[in-house]
Amino acid sequence: MTELKLRLQEGDTETTVSVDQDVFTIGRLPECNLYLPFGGVSRNHAQIVKTADGVWTIADMGSKNGTQVNERILTRPQQLHHGDVVWLGNVSLLVLVIDPAAEPMIKREPIKDRDGDNTEQKTILRNVKQLQQQWIQADSKDGDINNKDITIARLKDLVDIAKNLCAATSIEEIFFQVQEVVFRYLDSIDRLGLLIDVNGGGNLELMNAATRNASQQQNLAADGSWISRSICQKVFEEKVVIQSADTHKDERFSGEHSVLVKGIRSVMAVPLWDENKVVGVLYADAHLSSYHWANEGEEELSFFSALANLVASSVQRWLLVDKLKNEEVIRHRLERYHSPAVVQQLISVGRLPDGRLSPAESEISILFADLVGFTAISERVTPTAIAQLLNNLFEEMLQEVFGYGGTLDKYIGDCIMAFFGAPEPQPDHAERAIAAAKGMLTRLERLNMNGFWQEPLQLRIAINSGKAVVGDVGSSQRVEYTALGATINLAARMEAVCPPGECVISEVTYKMLSQPLDFQEMGSYSFKGINRLIKVYQTTMQK
Question: N or C: which end of the chain has fewer CB within 10 A?
Fold first, then answer.
C-alpha cells in the first residue's frame, strides 16, 4: 500500500508531512490536517482524498487563489503522482508517493545549504495538534520493547506531571514543575523560558527562566534578551510549534541579534494552547549542532508540545485566580466611589488594566450637598459626636447617590460632592442628579421625624451640568478619582445662594430636563471667577 507525503519548502527550510488520513484537509485554519499560516492560503484551501482503490486525489475547496498541480489550475479532482508540485497561493508542496514494499529503506535526500553541507531537518514547523499525541503513541526503535508498553509508561508520566501542575498555586511553582520535567526528559536543552500574555493584549512577558547548569542561572537576563522574540511571536500568533536545529543556517532566524550574539544553535518553542486560547509560549534553546535534532528532534518536540498543553491549563488557572485577586482589590477601591452596578460594569468591560481610570473629558452633572449650620453644631458638641453625625448622615445620603447610578467624588468637611455621567456615559445624567437630590432631601426629612439627631437637620444642594475632566488624578503614592473643570467650580459657587432645605440648578441643567415644571426661576447671579450672570432655578420640596 502506497504512502503519500507532502514536502514544504521555504527558503532553506523544509518540512515533510505524512498524509495519514483518507480525507486530508489543507488550509490556514489550525483545525486543518496540514496547517499553512501563510498569505494567499485560504482557510480551507484544498482536500486530498484516498479512493477505495488506493489512489490519492486532490480537489480545490473553493479557495480564493485557487489550487494548481504542475502549474495547471484545478477545476475538478485530480490524481496525484510522485513528483507533482501543488501550488496553494504562493506556497508549493512536493508530492512524494512511496511504496514501502518496493523501497523498505527509503531515505529522504538531505537539503544542501549554501556551502554544500547537509543540514537535515534544520527546521520543523508543525501544527500543534499534529504533535500532541505523537510522543505518547511512540514508534519503538528497539525491537525488544513493546510500543504499547511505551505508550502506557508515557501516559503515566504525563498523569504525574499533570498532578504536580494542578497542585501548583503560583506561576513560580508551575515553572518549577516544568523545569524539573524538561531537564529530566530532554538532555538537549540548555535554557528554558516561560513567556505569558498576562494582560491578554498579545504582549509576551518573560515570567521565569532557568538553565541546566545552576551556576549560570544568574547570567540569565531578566528582560529575556537571550530569547528570540520573533520565534516566540510567530509561535504565539500562528499557533505553530517551531524547532530549528541550526539557527545560523536558517534564513528565517539568521538575522536575529540574540541568536548571533548568544551563539544559540538550536531553538524549540511551542504555544501554551488549551484549545480555546493561546496564553503564552514555552521556549528552550541549546548550543548543540544540528545533528542531534536531525534524528531525535521531532520526538523531543512532540513531548515538549504535550507538556505545553498541560502547562497551558495550569497557566490559565493561575491567570484566572490572579485576575480575580486583582478584581477584588480594584472592586474594594472603586466601591468607595461608585455604585456596585457601575463597579461590576467597569470590571467586566476591562476598563482598568492597571487598576486606574485614566482622566477623560465627559458630559456630567455635578452635585454638591452641604449640611446647613454645621459650624454652629460643631461648637456645641464634641469632635467625636460630630464625626459620628457625619458618618451616619453620609451613609444615608450616599444610598441616594448610588441608587441613581452616581459616583462619589469626595467628602469636603460636611459636604458631599458627587457626579453623574461618568465613568460610564449616562445620557440622562441631569435627571439622575435631580432625582438623587430630591431623594436626599426626602430621606433627611424622614430621618428628622425619627429623631436622627438632637435637632432637625437641613441640606443645601446645588447642581450644574457640562463638560468636565473625570479620572484618577494624583501621585504614585496617592490617587483620587475626581472631576475637574469650570462646571464643578460653578456648582460649588451656586450652593451659597441655595435656601436651606432646597435644591438649585443651573440654566444648563434646567434645559436638559424632560419635565422642568417643578422648577421656577430664582434669578440671575454673579459668582466669583465667572464673568457672566448665571440664571439659577430652584424647586421647593413637597412637605
Answer: C
